[in-house]
């Protein structure tokens, strides 16, 4: 089996998992992933455990899958990364349980991304969160033409769909499917661009006001 066929199998596996719990849209939450882990009998824990001193070699750990001789399969997810990377990492580790259980017990560092199993896990995770066909349909419905997708349209897509796939993941998908020219969506300051289009998020306004010693009131909505 060549790599292309293998990655295709991983996308198919991800689609099967979406169907298993009735996922329809591109907004997948941690609670959705926990349903899948529960279905497959996999324990999920945040890392490091409270009071635990992390070894230097594990500082960059985002997630890990392992088989405990007594308690069975377990996934550890870094508690120090934001929600979207946590969701992606959970999906990534789910692939290891479903497809690689007999092959590996893997600590998944960023340095492992060239490995075929690791790339397969990335493909699986992206498909589980935002299937390629749905992504293509959504961009096409926005009037985006192949080869002409811009960073602003990626921001608009994420805003309108509320997908939990990261900007980096969306950009990679757009280039891979030919919606955007190769390397045209690299080095984009996504959050800055998002704020230039949709304004500063309320949570940032609250943080700024609190740090300045002021108070913040939500705007009154007229009915």
Describe the structure.
The protein has 223 residues and is an alpha+beta fold. The protein folds into two domains: 3-129, Arc Repressor Mutant, subunit A (Orthogonal Bundle); 132-198, no CATH class. It is built from nine helices and four strands; from the N terminus they run H-H-E-E-E-H-E-H-H-H-H-H-H. A four-stranded mixed beta sheet has the order 1-3-2-4, with helices on one face. A hairpin with a 3-residue loop joins strand 2 (63-68) and strand 3 (72-78).
Summarize the helix and strand pattern as letters: HHEEEHEHHHHHH
Judged by helices, strands and strand pairing, the structural class is alpha+beta
Query: Main sheet?
Result: 4 strands, mixed
- Strand-residue proportion: 5-15%
The CATH topology label of the largest domain is Arc Repressor Mutant, subunit A
Task: Kindly provide the name of the CATH class of the largest domain.
Answer: Mainly Alpha
Low-confidence stretches: none
Please count the helical segments. Answer: 9
Overall geometric form: globular
In total, the number of strands is 4
- Mean pLDDT over the full residue set: 87
Total discrete domains? 2
Distance between the termini: 61 Å
């Amino acid at each position: 089996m060549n790599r292309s066929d293998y990655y295709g199998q991983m996308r198919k596996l991800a689609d099967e998992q979406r169907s298993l719990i009735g996922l329809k849209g591109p907004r997948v939450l941690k609670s959705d992933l926990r349903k899948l882990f529960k279905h497959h009998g996999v324990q999920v824990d945040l890392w490091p455990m409270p009071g635990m001193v992390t070894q230097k070699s594990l500082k960059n750990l985002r997630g890990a899958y392992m088989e405990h001789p007594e308690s069975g399969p377990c996934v550890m997810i870094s508690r120090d990364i934001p929600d979207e990377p946590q969701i992606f990492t959970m999906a990534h580790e789910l692939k290891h349980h479903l497809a690689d259980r007999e092959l590996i017990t893997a600590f998944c560092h960023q340095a492992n991304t060239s490995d075929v199993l690791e790339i397969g896990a990335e493909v699986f995770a992206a498909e589980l969160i935002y299937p390629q066909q749905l992504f293509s349909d959504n961009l096409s419905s926005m009037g985006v033409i192949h080869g002409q997708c811009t960073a602003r349209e990626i921001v608009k897509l994420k805003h309108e769909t509320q997908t939990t796939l990261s900007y980096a993941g969306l950009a990679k998908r757009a280039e891979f499917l030919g919606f955007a020219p190769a390397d045209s969506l690299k080095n984009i300051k996504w959050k800055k661009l998002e704020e230039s289009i949709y304004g500063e998020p309320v949570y940032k306004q609250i943080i700024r006001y609190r740090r300045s010693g002021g108070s913040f009131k939500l705007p009154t909505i007229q009915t």
